[in-house]
Amino acid sequence: MVKAANSRGTAPGTPPRTRILVVGGGYVGMYTALRLQRKLRADEAEVTVVTPEPYMTYQPFLPEAAAGSISPRHVVVPLRRVLNRCRIVIGEAQRIDHAKRTATVTTLATPEEGTGAIEIEYDELVLAPGSVSRTLPIPGLAEYAIGFKTVEEAIGLRNHVIEQMDIASSTRDPAIRDAALTFVFVGGGYAGVEALAELEDMARYAARYYHNIKPEDMTWVLVEASDRILPEVGPDMGKYTIRELRGRNIDLRLETRLESCENRVAVLSDGTRFPTRTVVWTAGVKPHPVLAATDLPTNQRGRLSCTAFLTVEGVEHAWAAGDAAAVPDITAAAPGTECAPNAQHAVRQAKVLADNLIHALRDEVLTEYAHKYVGSVASLGLHKGVAHIYGRKLKGYPAWFMHRVYHLSRVPTFNRKMRVLAEWTLSGLFKREIVSLGSLEHPRAEFELAAGASPKKPPAPPAPNPPQDSQR
Question: Mind giving me the DSSP string for 241-256?
């Protein structure tokens, strides 16, 4: 074990600065650290952010990135630029001993240095690692499915869809063609519905450039275990979404489960079999595994037990919010109701958490987190969407426009907002790009072949990682 250098950087005779450790660089982690660096004086505290990636992913834009409406680099926010007064450590928190105020972290340099994980000491802990896949022991899922959580997965899926169209266009085998043009999505929440709708819209547009592929040649399937989709937008808008998708010849299977996807055949609980080369898993999330490697209290679902002040229940100097935290919803009519694990709550909780942490450092009164639900929006492809905002139901172009306006207002930093707006404007003036850059995933393959080495086979697709945060 190696202790990380963690100097408090204070002059002799002055009180030491409070060491704040933020675990996670997602919505809660980034917004909390951003507010802390803005409102804390340099001599009050030092903020360290531990995150596996050097950027925050704005997940509601992943479907548009997959469809080519937004460049991948505009879906992410570079943490070192935004959190320029914080210390950024790219690594994974493996264990947290809050009694000793230490976190064990593995970094990119750990295996190269031949050392164990580093140990970071802290005074105040903000635990916001988000969530990971809630996968099931379905045969073939780990080998053949792909998640839709990261920007890498979104772009990889776009490349994959276009590559399947290329395969279908060039083969003479009808079985290979049918499997290549069959796309199965599992999960009827925001991630699944928006990813399917945007990619189907993109593929339908791309089909005009293939001499032997028509939109009706493709089979798009959405599998959902419950009896409805997009429950956040209400039952009426959910029914409208079903009608809209089915009007585009998308096969919606409600109250149906994926039983197997072995040997590239998706077998559903209703007995249907779909030979397919594409299975996208977006069926829910569960708390991050690091929560089980702490001495902090969790509830029966594995989330941290928290108060409405966003402190960990019964523990001093520990804070949590977002998907990892079970925060009581004091605005709900039913007692014991928790805030839903979604981005709407995560962003707003981060603000209250940061303020309360500052209040605690200054011996001031804390504020309870309370958020009134204002609505939800969802994109169903270019110029199509659904929304339920302030009790008003929107569909079609108005809902799609509201979706873009809302998320543009929520994108961090003015610079990022202007880049996204400029890209949307340009995409409205010019045609879509329909190029697959799948070779980016294995950039050395051609060089290895030229150098006389056998190109390494690409690894099998990883076990699917669903959204670390619900998308709304």
Answer: HHHHHHHTTEEEEET-
